Amino acid sequence: MNVPLISLQNVGKKYQQLAALESVTMTLNQGEVLGLFGHNGAGKTTMMKLILGVISPSSGSVEVMGMAPDSKEAWHSRTQIGYLPENVSFYEQLTGLEVLTYFAKLKGFNKKTAIALLEQVGITHAMKRQVKTYSKGMRQRLGLAQAFIGEPKLLLLDEPTVGLDPIATADFYRTVDQLKTNGSSVILCSHVLPGVEQHIDRAMILSDGEVLAAGTLNELRQNANMPVKIKPKGLNGAVSNDPKLSQFLTCKLDQQTLLVPEQDKLSTLRQLLSYDAMDDIQVEPANLEQLYQHYLTQRTSEFRGESS
C-alpha cells in the first residue's frame, strides 16, 4: 500500500478566535498535482504553512513524508521541498545569480545548478544585474528557479503565474508537467483558473477555512450535476423539431446550443449523429472556472438559508 506524501486528518488552525481552517482532510500521492483554489482568506496559505511546518495545527494531524512537518525529525526532509510564496522577496542588492547560488548552497547544490535553473526560467540575460532592477515578472521567474532547486519531491506553489506573460506561463506549466513526470508532487494555488485544469489531477476548493469540494474534475462535475454544452452545426431547424433534442434547448434565440445533463450526454450525441446534415459538433463540459463559481454560489446560498 502506497503511503501518501502528504496527509491531513481533520486539521484545524485557529488564530485566537479566528478559525483559519476547520476539519480539513486531504492526501497527496507521489507524482500527483493538486490545484488548491479559493478566495483571499479562504485558508490556502495557512494550509501550505502547515504542510511546510512553519506553523502547527490547533487540532488534527499533519504528516509530510511520514512525519510531522513541525517536528525536529522533519528538518532533513525540507531539502526535498520547494516553496514559492505568493509575495516573492529577495535581497535587493544582490544579483539574480548571487541570490540563486545562495539558495542552491543552502540545499547542498552549487553555482552551476543555479546557472542552469536561471536558464530554465529564461533570465540568464539578467543574472548579473541586481534584483532591485528586476520587473515583477522577472522576480517571479527567479522565485520559480529557487523553488525548483534540486528537483524537489514536493513543490508548494502559491500564485506562481502572477506577473508572468503568456509565454512564461506556458513555460512554467511545461516545467510542472516535467516535474510530475519525474515523480514530484505539486500543490498549486492559483486565482488564475483558465489554463490550470489540464495540468492538475485533482482540485480542492476552500471557502472560509472549510473544504467546499474536492476530487477530480469529473467527480466535481458529477457532484455539481452541471450540464454539458453541446453545439451541433449544419442542422438548421432540425434540433428544435426533434423532441429528444429540443428539451435541452434553453433559449429560443439560440436553436443550436444544448445544455445536456451528464447522464443524457451519450444518448443525445447518438441522436445528433443520426442526422446526415450535421457537419461538426462541439462538446464542452463545465470548466474549472464554472465549477468554482458553482460551489461558491452554493455555499453562499446555504449560508443565507441558515441565517434567514
TrEMBL record:
Identify the CDD domains for this entry: ABC_DR_subfamily_A (cd03230)
Show the GO MF annotations. Answer: ATP binding
User: Looking at the record's lineage, which domain of life comes first?
Assistant: Bacteria
| Pfam families, alphabetized | ABC_tran
Q: Transport as a keyword?
A: yes
Sequence ranges assigned to domain ABC transporter in this UniProt record: 6-233
Question: Which PANTHER family does the record associate with it?
Answer: ABC TRANSPORTER ATP-BINDING PROTEIN ALBC-RELATED
Put simply, this protein is called ABC transporter ATP-binding protein
Native organism is: Thalassotalea nanhaiensis
Q: What is the lineage of its organism?
A: Bacteria, Pseudomonadati, Pseudomonadota, Gammaproteobacteria, Alteromonadales
